């Protein structure tokens, strides 16, 4: 069959229009060929966020920011397009956080517990966070302060204990040891609390670094080492906390013994194990305080990412 | 001064081509023929140009971005946006300035020096609307189509090149391309293709229609047609960017 | 009737001729002669306003062609058939389509009538059966004859022949001269023939216009030419005669 010129021309135009139409739909997220659902959230502010910024759920990229506009009142309405197969509960929260360098932001959706899933065009709660870096920094400072305060207290207590031992004021030892126990309890609690905070931070950092990882493999080793450092810090803290608990237990035993009138102060003072324990604990704590004061970065190594790059 | 005179002559030619716009019957066959030559017959070269432009864009963007911490999907975004906004229209036009422009100028130039244009006029035709109008119309109609072909093939070329070079997976490439897809880019690209189609066909017609001096004269007008088409395409590109961006 | 009044034409600073005036009566055959490059082709292109003069008028049936509205000008041009010096066949079309071209656009004939007319025209110029050859496949003389068939196909009032016989063998020239004569006699067409060929001039022309010294140097009937004693004119004529005889 001979194709007439008219047909060829018509075909050319038709193919172009069809290709253009479908290409446009494919590229432009048109409702007809929608491959994503749009949900909205209001934030107090949205600095650093741009259309195209990523959206994560539990560290998995599920979509991107479609548009942002000022809404009535003093908030910003952010529309997010999520992959069609993402299921997130209706009461989920969208956290606006730092995701990368240069003050890049991303939205992290923390899943709620609702049975109902978010539908197209639904709105979820939006929370603006100062950004991971800032949070971490604050947490770090807080932690360091808390720790040094506690250690100071502990030190005074130990000093007092020493003095009392010297003076052989046995009557006071009882209360002092009780105090000491409370302090160590506090310490333990502090570490437990802070540990979860720190763990959260580290999870954030890991998430962040995982993102970074996909970006480039070039600095992978450096990132890995930073990550390892962070893990190590956590482990150290855990060990420390563990030791404190241990000490605490020992102290309690001593206290029980004293209370039961089972031994004397001399016995207590002459017990080299306990003394050593106390001393090494004190030394360790001093070291920790010193370390944290001198180099908070050791425990917040991920803050150094900025320096790395 | 002379440039101004030339521009006047050029404008007059376009005016004369429009004067018989309504006589579709006389130039319909020519229009079909030109649509065929400018459109249908340019599709292969446009697809080829598109694929290679997209592929080169992808690989070079990947190479340049390797040092920085930027998601690889950005490669898709940069490739597709540059294609849609600039390259699909401009590179296609520069290639077609050679192919289409040279053909038009040679055809009309030969018709001029062999008195075929006089023959048309003497028969009572409006030779301008008979010869110039269908060519310019075909350019206006077909260049946006070719822009679409170049864009689609360019993005596909980039996608494939990204995949085979391992720089970016098709999924990431497309996600980047889609995230940075702005309908305005396409509007702008089509506008460009439209303008470039007009520039190339009208300049080539002008040069061919007023050719003189035998075979050598035709050669000269052909050279001028292609060179001027390219220059005016780039100039128009600049003006459009300055006006619309 | 075509009245040429005080025509002056120059290309840039290059004067072709000035102050050319003469009349061409209906039904007569006028020969325009002169040296190569004296502006004969340029002159005939003014008759249907393919070129515009610096000054002067060409008046056809009372209208100055240079002042016609474009629509009227195109109507007026359709009254002319032109055989161009280089034949000016459309090289994108074959012989048949070249001849059929004016019919397709300017007549109401159906396809069969067009076919018949074109074949008749091909017969007339002795090119029967060459309809589907392209102009590039034809010899110069054949092209000339196809162009002649195309120029006459719409039976125009005025026929301009720009050197219809130059470069042809004497026999073919003779055939073409006969065609011109029969066209003028049978169809009462007004013919304007540009030529170097004095032999055919004397055979076909009623009147002669001689361009020389950038002006219309001489014009008159064939009888007057024979009697003329103008040196320059005679030199031109006899130079031709000499060529023919040798
Ligand atoms: N389009 C043009 N532009 C500039 N000059 C031209 C043009 N056409 C013709 N001329 C000049 O006008 C003069 C007359 O040219 P024309 O073609 O009329 O000569 P001619 O008498 O027909 O010669 P021949 O017998 O060789 O055909 C020539 O000198 C030519 O150079
Ligand atoms: Mg001539």
UniProtKB/TrEMBL annotation, chain A:
The keyword Isomerase does not apply. Keywords: Coiled coil, Membrane, Transmembrane, Transmembrane helix. This is ABC-type transporter Mla maintaining outer membrane lipid asymmetry, component MlaD. Pfam families: MlaD. InterPro entries: Mce/MlaD, MlaD_Phospholipid_Transporter. Residues 37-111 form the Mce/MlaD domain. It comes from Fodinibius roseus. It comes from the Bacteria. Residues 230-257 form a coiled coil. The chain crosses the membrane at residues 7-27.
TrEMBL record, chain B:
It comes from Fodinibius roseus. This is Phospholipid/cholesterol/gamma-HCH transport system permease protein. The chain crosses the membrane at residues 147-168, 180-203, 223-244. GO terms for cellular component: ATP-binding cassette (ABC) transporter complex. Coiled coil: none annotated. Keywords: Membrane, Transmembrane, Transmembrane helix. It comes from the Bacteria. PANTHER family: ABC TRANSPORTER PERMEASE PROTEIN-RELATED (PTHR30188), PROTEIN TRIGALACTOSYLDIACYLGLYCEROL 1, CHLOROPLASTIC (PTHR30188:SF4). One of its GO terms (molecular function) is phospholipid transporter activity. The keyword Oxidoreductase does not apply.
Automatic annotation (TrEMBL), chain C:
GO terms for molecular function: ATP binding; ATP hydrolysis activity. InterPro entries: AAA+_ATPase, ABC_transporter-like_ATP-bd, ABC_transporter-like_CS, P-loop_NTPase. Pfam families: ABC_tran (PF00005). It comes from the Bacteria. Keywords: ATP-binding, Nucleotide-binding, Transport. Residues 2-238 form the ABC transporter domain. PANTHER family: INTERMEMBRANE PHOSPHOLIPID TRANSPORT SYSTEM ATP-BINDING PROTEIN MLAF, PROTEIN TRIGALACTOSYLDIACYLGLYCEROL 3, CHLOROPLASTIC. This is Phospholipid/cholesterol/gamma-HCH transport system ATP-binding protein. It comes from Fodinibius roseus. The lineage of its organism: Bacteria, Pseudomonadati, Balneolota, Balneolia, Balneolales.
């Amino acid at each position: 069959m001979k194709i007439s010129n008219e047909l060829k021309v018509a075909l050319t135009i038709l193919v172009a229009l069809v290709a253009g139409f479908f290409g446009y739909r494919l590229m432009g997220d048109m409702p007809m060929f929608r491959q994503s659902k749009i949900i909205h959230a209001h934030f107090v502010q949205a600095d650093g966020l741009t259309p195209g910024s990523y959206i994560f759920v539990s560290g998995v990229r599920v979509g991107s920011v479609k548009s942002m506009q000022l809404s009535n009142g003093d908030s910003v309405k952010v529309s997010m397009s999520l992959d069609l197969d993402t299921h997130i509960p209706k009461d989920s929260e969208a956290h606006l956080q730092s995701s990368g360098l240069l003050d890049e932001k991303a939205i992290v959706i923390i899943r709620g517990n609702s049975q109902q899933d978010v539908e197209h065009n639904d709105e979820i709660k939006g929370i603006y966070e100062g950004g991971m870096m800032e949070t971490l920094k604050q947490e770090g400072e807080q932690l360091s302060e808390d720790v040094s305060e506690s250690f100071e207290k502990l030190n005074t207590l130990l000093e007092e204990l020493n003095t009392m031992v010297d003076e052989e004021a046995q009557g006071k030892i009882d209360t002092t040891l009780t105090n000491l126990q409370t302090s160590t309890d506090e310490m333990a609690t502090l570490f437990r609390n802070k540990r979860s905070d720190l763990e959260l931070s580290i999870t954030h950092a890991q998430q962040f670094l995982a993102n970074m990882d996909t970006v480039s493999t070039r600095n992978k080793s450096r990132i890995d080492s930073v990550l390892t450092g962070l893990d190590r810090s956590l482990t150290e803290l855990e060990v420390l906390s563990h030791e404190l608990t241990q000490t605490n237990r020992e102290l309690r035993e001593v206290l029980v013994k004293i209370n039961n009138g089972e031994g004397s102060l001399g016995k207590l003072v002459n017990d080299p194990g306990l003394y050593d324990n106390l001393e090494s604990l004190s030394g360790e704590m001093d070291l920790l305080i010193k370390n944290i004061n001198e180099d908070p970065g050791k425990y917040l190594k991920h803050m150094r990412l900025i320096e790395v790059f | 001064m002379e440039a101004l005179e030339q521009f006047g002559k050029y404008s007059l030619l376009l005016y004369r081509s429009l004067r018989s716009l309504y006589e579709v019957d006389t130039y319909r066959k020519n229009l079909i023929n030109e649509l065929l030559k400018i459109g249908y017959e340019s599709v292969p070269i446009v697809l080829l140009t598109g694929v290679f432009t997209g592929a080169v864009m992808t690989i070079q963007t990947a190479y340049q971005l390797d040092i920085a911490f930027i998601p690889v999907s950005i490669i898709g975004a940069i490739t597709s946006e540059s294609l849609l906004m600039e390259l699909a229209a401009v590179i296609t036009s520069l290639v077609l300035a050679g192919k289409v422009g040279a053909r038009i100028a040679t055809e009309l130039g030969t018709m001029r020096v062999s008195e075929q244009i006089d023959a048309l006029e003497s028969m009572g035709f409006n030779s301008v609307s008979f010869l110039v109008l269908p060519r310019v119309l075909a350019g206006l109609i077909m260049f946006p189509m070719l822009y679409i072909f170049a864009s689609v093939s360019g993005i596909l070329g980039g996608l494939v090149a990204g995949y085979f070079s391992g720089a970016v997976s098709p999924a990431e490439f497309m996600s980047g391309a889609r995230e940075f897809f702005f309908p305005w880019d396409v509007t702008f690209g089509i506008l460009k293709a439209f303008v470039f189609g007009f520039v190339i066909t009208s300049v080539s017609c002008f040069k061919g229609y007023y050719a003189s001096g035998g075979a050598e004269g035709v050669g000269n007008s052909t050279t001028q047609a292609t060179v001027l088409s390219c220059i005016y395409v780039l100039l128009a590109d600049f003006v459009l960017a300055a006006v619309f961006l | 009737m075509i009245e040429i009044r005080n025509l002056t034409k120059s290309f840039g600073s290059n004067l072709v001729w000035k102050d050319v005036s003469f009349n061409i009566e209906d039904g007569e055959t006028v020969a325009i002669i002169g040296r190569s490059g004296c502006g004969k082709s340029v002159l005939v292109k003014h008759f249907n306003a393919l070129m515009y003069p610096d000054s002067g008028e060409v008046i056809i049936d009372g209208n100055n062609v240079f002042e016609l509205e474009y629509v009227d000008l195109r109507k007026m041009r359709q009254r002319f058939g032109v055989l161009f010096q280089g034949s000016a066949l459309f090289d994108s079309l074959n012989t048949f389509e070249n001849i059929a071209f004016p019919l397709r656009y300017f007549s109401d004939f159906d396809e069969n009538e067009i076919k018949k007319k074109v074949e008749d025209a091909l017969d007339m110029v002795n090119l029967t059966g060459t309809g589907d050859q392209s102009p590039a496949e034809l010899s110069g003389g054949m092209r000339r004859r196809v162009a002649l068939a195309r120029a006459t196909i719409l039976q125009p009032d005025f026929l301009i022949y720009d050197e219809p016989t130059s470069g042809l063998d004497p026999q073919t020239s003779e055939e073409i001269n006969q065609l011109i004569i029969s066209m003028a006699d049978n169809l009462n067409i007004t013919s304007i023939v540009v030529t170097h060929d004095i032999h055919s001039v004397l055979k076909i022309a009623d009147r002669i216009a001689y361009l020389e010294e950038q002006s219309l140097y001489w014009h008159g009937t064939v009888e007057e030419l024979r009697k003329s004693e103008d040196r320059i004119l005679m030199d031109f004529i006899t130079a031709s005669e000499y060529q023919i005889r040798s």
